[in-house]
Amino acid sequence: MSDTGWLDANNRYLAASLQWLRLTLTALVPGDVGDAPPVGTVGPTPGLLDWFKGGKSNGAPVGQVALPAPSSANLLEQVSAAREAAARCEPLPALLQLADRMGLSDFERDTLLLCVAAELDPSQAALCAAIPGCRGYPSFALAMQAFSDPAWEALSPHRPLRYLRLLEINQPGTTPLTAAGLRADERIVNCIKGLNVLDERLGLLLGAPLADSGSLSASQSQVASEIAAQLHLGAAAGRVPVVLLLGVDDGSKAAVADQVAAGLQRRLYRLSLADIPTARTELETFARLWQRETMLLGVAIHIDAGEWESAGHEQASALQWLLTRDLGLVFVSVRERPAWPLANSYGTTVSKPTPAEQRDAWLDVLAERDAAGDHAETAALLAGQFCLSLRDIDQVAGLAEQTAGPLPPQLWRQCCELARPRLDLLAQRLEPKADWDDLVLPAEASSLLKQIVTQVHGRYRVYQDWGYAQKMTRGLGISALFAGESGTGKTMAAEVLANALQLALYRIDLSAIVSKYIGETEKNLRKLFDAAEQGGAILFFDEADALFGKRSEVKDSHDRYANIEVNYLLQRMESFSGIAILATNMKSALDAAFMRRLRFIVNFPFPGLPERKLMWQKALAPTVPSEGLDFERLARFNLSGGNIQSIALNAAFAAAVEAGAVSMPLLLSATRTELRKLDKQINESEFRAIQSGGRS
Q: AAA+ ATPase domain spans which residues (predicted)?
């Protein structure tokens, strides 16, 4: 039956039920039943059926159901027969479906009809008022008087009428429950009328049904199939388990939940942990209304509880309590299985597609746009550096197509842009400008930096094609320590790597991340690493000494929690799949256990005389006018590369003010200022010697 056909049938049944109810109530009014509406045209108030249907139907007068002309004695029987005939449609009328799904008895169903009729038939109030003992509104007492087989248990708070909030009870003061006024819940009235939509009170808390969250890879589809199998087993045993979706990638977990729900013909709604009510009465109302919706609509809920560990006690307690209730199909997205017991649950880890699946997806994207080309190397490079879902890959491909230029570089750039919005909130983004020619380092340090670049480019071949990913128990990312005094080129080296790899560079000041509040440091670090897992950025941890010093012997609780922070960071670095660089001024403060977990240790020594000379030569931009510079003599000053850059910049500004060129006197003046800033002793004779050399 079409939707329109079912609505017509539902309205006919509802009109017949209202006629039957009106005759039943009329029989309770003192006087002759013959006072009822004329035989053959028994119906609700004029125009009611027309309002239901939006127009006339089946030839009957508006607002009436065509009946044979009975005698007044069997009028109620004829109306009952017409009601039963109207009920024989497929699917069943909404009232009968609701009664079946919620386990209502005939008495409870008719009591609900009595309350619904008060909303649909304005004349019912006057009819009820004419009944002895009735005050003009529906009540349990009136239902027990009007309907056959009344049951006291229908009044129980554990029966559906009250437990599922099908009725609202107005019981002021000492009014007995049986005499209290009853009103059908608006959501139930709409449902019985045929308008079956989510309760507005729930809609204020829940996100809209998830749109298509993208296709799943083969490995993710396998996880979805395993979840569906567990749900079927649970349903057969009489209790559907809560599905715990474990892992860090919210997008993949949402996609898996969406596919499972779609396979079970459930509409999936989202609920954030922060939106769960904490007041017990509100939480109880939410749970009961949601239970009602699972019976009316066929819905499922996906609770995003990824931050439950750091949530307040009230929020976490509300989540725990909510998951003990029978809420139908429930997915809970968490990073790890909660420590508190959850009896009826099934947990599974949801990850992004495997590197091989990502490579195949990149191959499909590239081949679709250039079928003749060989894209194996590009696909392997993208899959080796970035960890994306299939939906992310499609999104990147769409954005890259809209940009002019060769496709592979545009794909790389768009991949880097994916993680930028989240990382911009957590770290300082640096614009890398330095390249290999700007670096002045010993050969060993330069070689190590180039090895980092080489390993990034060859990650897919070594880890996947050659099978090292199956052998390694630690993460597949690249971690490096840059050790050296301030100004020796650590930040510049990070910029060179970012430029060489075409990745974004984010600076994290660990001294700012370390919190005095227990647990906050781990929370800050977790957010940072999670945001960078897509692989589009280099994380450059400056001031690593704030957290990476020697783990102290535990003497008090502060020492214990400080060591927990260090251990957590070491754990995250091992599992991190991207590139993390740590900068420290005190390599000697790092303990041996920490050093073993780093793949590269690059030493940045204080520059000697030849290195300083080269730094002075590179300090001034090629377009800066200069005259009479003696780099050999300038290199005699014991300064780091950072100090030299600062001196050159200050001298350039001084030359600009004089509208002249950078000269030895200007450089010497800026050098003297820099030395004073560093609280270093100034040998004026050395300055005079250099000045005389500069004038010769």
A: 476-608
